[in-house]
Write a structure and sequence with these properties.
The structure is a homotetramer.
Chain A lengths: L12 H9 L12 H13 L5 E5 L2 H12 L4 E6 L3 H4 L4 H6 L3 E5 L8 H9 L10 E8 L10 H13 L3 E6 L2 H8 L3 H4 L7 E5 L9 E5 L8 H7 L8 H11 L3 H21 L14 E7 H9 L5 E2 L15 E7 L6 H19 L4
Parallel strand pairs in A: 2-3, 2-4, 4-5, 5-6
Antiparallel strand pairs in A: 1-7, 6-7, 8-10, 9-10
Chain lengths: ~350, ~350, ~350, ~350
């Protein structure tokens, strides 16, 4: 009953098999191998456009490299105030960019609205030397609150950004889950909606350790090979990254994996929604379920061995905040989550609700 | 016949098996798992001392993190002028340290001598504000020329460094091969000889992608967790790094692998030494063979599909430099190199030598 | 009628004379001269405590050096969201610190409240590797809204910061004006209230180009000489910085200058307050006057040659924001501002108010 | 008798007068004033070409900003191994560039030769990802050994650099002295010979604290305003930098000052050359005299209050190195140096030589 993170599970068997299969024989090092070449080609096909691709082992590396490629040291990156790049990467974008500033924007469910973006951009006029310069908009797809941007929403924000001369980055650590939820093509959710650089995640969705920085305009990718090398993110046995990404894409495996994770979350959300005393501040969209539960239920679940994160009040309006006897938690399903695990969790939750509900006279 | 790099081969089957075995079930992310804990414990045992350990996926990351931990942005790192950290990492130490300066020292076979170190340190008095400040000595074990430092040699250099207030870093990308060549314990080659921080390599010696930054004085490791995270080198599914390192150490597997690589290089070096027209500018010590061969032999070998790097004149004295009809090459054996591959290479070399040697009248 | 900035005026004649007087003869370069030594000694006397002093030519340099001395690259600096270090220095603290994050806090009149500081600190627990680490609190004395912290207010905030392991920095670009307004000693406003490092400004208050980074605990100043040199802020003819600071302090000249600037602002504020249609959203404390004026008055003043900045809505509550026919402006008096200039400005303002008031039938 | 540095003297009276004259009244801050505009215009006239100009207070800032403008963080700057940017600025170019590598080249008298440059460039092929990328050539005019590059020499080196895609920077801290020695125009010594960015020094030649970064191709200057601001080098009372530079250029004052300094050095060098036991390893070209003198003479001079730097063996061939009873020293004349000071120095030197020469029976 581990719902702590989509990193808590292992790798998809198919991806693991691909690693084992890639092990034999000798190949050129540092990404000059056929596996990496094949993965790059498949990404271009998946996104219906020639892409410059840089494989790395972590999402933080992908995000920080992508942002550094489009942001000077004196640049401002506009992102949601709760964004992973701002809160959970220990300053990686600042490090890779040489000291850029992340400007955090308000917005419901981790999403940036056009109104807030426009208002913020107005405060950062280009050329005002005393201020950092507007450089990039970074959208998380999905957000830290498990929300997704529709292609139209992305396009609206990207248009504003482009008009102001910004590049558009998408943190797609859960891009697969988002695309699956949206029912659109990868291209529709990214470059066709105005995204210039995408951190395309695989690790949370079944890879062992593999992410791709995808630059849709190959001309803008010139520096990334040096940035990656210099950051220690060019794996010497690069074939293992290539093999993971290849297996991840082959036959739409990545969509299958995301579908499974989203389905497990649906089962979990539906089950919880039916339990008295449980409330959901916003609808579930991907493989994450955010719920306010009674404190007693929380205790029962943890006692039963369930793992998940207390989410504080993040993303909640004052009206939605947990009461004295409640906690707000995040439950993450992954492609490794089984129906049995979900049902086991629900059984404990239901039992706790029952006990709580019983009159005490 | 791939002698281009010890990165050209795959992973040792035992290490690959360990990755597969570690895949099941859920574990905490970001290195808080039992595999990583076990690997850390085993490293402390291997080095006969409590160690702070930070696993990462590349040697460049290990070196750059280790150096940044002991060098301020205005620090000088003294290393050999041909050192990997200086020539082959695209400025990673400069990036991670925030702009430190690598000062390259001359010396035969990639080794720094006490005389040159002392003379250089004299040019960097501590406290002279206009100059970068002496911060670290970095020794490669083995060097870019495949030479090893004996524990006594390391100790002599480390003493000079410590007297001048420097920390001592060892780039041990081929530490296993060096220790095997020296016939000493890991402790003797490292902290007992004065090394403060070690980049302990596994990737070149049979891991898929795994290196450890080992800080022998745990008190000096406080910053490294933040530096690693911020550099995007804290793998979310950290269990896979832990599993690799664990399997690498278990039952002395790492020594076996290095022994095999060194033995293959011995076979290769002995075979080449017996061929007329081939000369070795310095004795082979680890799994790398540096030889001057006739240009015709070089052509024959490459035609036969052999892969290896032209080494220019690096490490050679003017007297040793290749003549007009010669080339200087580096041949690297790895734990994946078989006797058959070596013998096949030697057959082509011998045949080429025979043709060349034959009088043409 | 230049009320744009306290940088718009020249230098105080006494300071200029001191520069001229220091010009003769030869002195050691790079701050090893007697003028700098004397200035350092006088600062220690002024602050009633031995201080480590680093003179530089700009306030941005002073702030960025001071912050870098107490903040690691992965550190968080807590400051007001409108702070000069955050909004007006083009990312200098990020640059000098190697990528630290400035966390902007709400608060009235540019001031941080203990409640908001405590709540923010709670979100940055020490040791949570994924987040930047709490490192420093930076208070502006006076703030961007011309408000001052009483010694008790500073102490309350500094206590919270110290309890959380943070260093306390004070941006004292207008420290003289603030101390004068508070009627306290420099020591009371700084280290006795818990300030660890002070950017002690002189340029805005009558120097040509001179600021001091003052570290109250000399043990914490070890790195600053290198940081300053490496940032190009160690003037070769350092005597000219020393001479400015010496003349600035001698005979309490700095207090006189601040008194004059504050008095001019008082005259201006009092005059404006008496004009119908002019309103002040908060009381004036130092040499800056923030007023909402009729748009017609604004036009008249600018037509008459007055210079000052439109302040948008910064620092205002929604209730205080200017109406459709109003503008919110900042007027800065300096030690060069004369009563005639103030009165001239007021005359134009009054005349405009008169015209506006007149019925148009 | 201060020959320690051309920074040891004060400012030229005309420049000081200009500062005083610029003090009255109000001007826009941060370099938007008429003095700065006039200085920029005069620099364009002096160099016979439209220039982008950025005034700063120190030579280290000028060099580091100039280099950062043409070098990415992963770039290599080729300079002489004894260059000021490499040895005397505490890593400022590394800091400003975000971690670039300075590659030191051998060469007589601090000068880089085309042969060595070509050989070094061959080791840094563009696009080899594991290495830092060739970005800039930096020439010191004059060098640390007081040598000058003729326009033809500069052009030859600049051509090699441009062919390899590098930008050419000139560290002109003593540009005035060099131009005076060469008898050429500023344009001939800089952009007409291929220089792209020049650090144009004034401080060592009579300014109080003023240098200009001059970008000959204004299109390449886009980032410098932000870099300067963010480094704390945009002076708020910018008029004082403008006033200095204006007075420095007006009526060819800068050439006069350099002529005076060079003449004093000529007098000094000629006088010393005539003293038995004194030898000059290379001819004097600018305002610096490098001489090997008897140790007894050194003692006598220092006893008499003379100040100058021991130069070790820098720039000397083994044959030229000082013997057991000799020292190698650098004597710097400045525009403040008088004939009396020179003659006084020579008197002491001659007397010491006489005593030494006298037989002791």
């Amino acid at each position: 009953m581990d719902f702590a993170s989509d990193n808590a599970g292992g790798a998809s068997p198919r991806i693991l098999d691909a690693i084992v299969a890639a092990n034999g024989g000798f190949t050129p090092a540092y990404g000059e191998d056929d596996y990496t070449r094949a993965a790059t080609k498949m990404l271009s096909e998946t996104f219906e456009r020639p892409c410059a691709v840089f494989l790395v082992a972590t999402g933080t590396a992908a995000n920080a490299l992508a942002l550094a490629a489009v942001t000077p040291p004196w640049g401002a990156v506009f992102c949601h105030e709760d964004a992973h790049i701002s809160d959970d990467e220990c300053g990686a974008p600042e490090f890779f960019s040489g000291g850029a500033k992340l400007v955090g924007l308000h917005g419901p469910h981790g999403k940036i609205t056009p109104e807030i973006l426009a208002a913020t951009l107005a405060k950062y006029p280009r050329g005002l030397v005393k201020q950092v310069q507007p450089a990039a908009l970074s959208l998380a797809q999905a957000t830290e609150c498990g929300a997704v941007y529709s292609p139209a929403e992305t396009a609206r924000l990207a248009d504003l950004a482009h008009e102001a001369g910004l590049a558009v980055h998408m943190d797609g650590a859960r891009f697969a889950n988002a695309v699956e939820a949206l029912g659109c093509t990868p291209a529709q959710a990214s470059w066709q909606a105005g995204v210039d650089v995408l951190s395309f995640g695989a690790t949370k969705n079944g890879a062992l350790a593999c992410e791709a920085v995808i630059v849709f305009d190959p001309d803008r990718a010139a520096d990334l090979a040096f940035r990656r090398k210099r950051a220690g993110h060019t794996l010497s046995k690069g074939r293992f990254l290539g093999a993971q990404m290849k297996a991840y894409l082959e036959g739409g495996h990545w969509r299958e994996l995301a579908r499974a994770a989203n389905a497990a979350a649906t089962r979990l959300a539906d089950g919880l929604a039916a339990i008295p005393g449980v409330r959901m501040p916003w609808p579930r969209q991907i493989n994450e379920v955010f719920v306010v539960i009674p404190a007693a239920m929380d205790r029962a679940l943890r006692q039963a061995g369930a793992r998940y994160h207390d989410w504080g009040v993040r993303g909640l309006t004052p009206m939605q905040e947990p009461g004295a006897d409640e906690v707000f938690v995040r439950l993450v399903a992954s492609c490794s989550t089984t129906a049995e695990q979900v049902d086991g969790f629900l059984r404990v939750a239901r039992a706790a609700a029952g006990r709580q509900g019983r009159p005490t006279y």
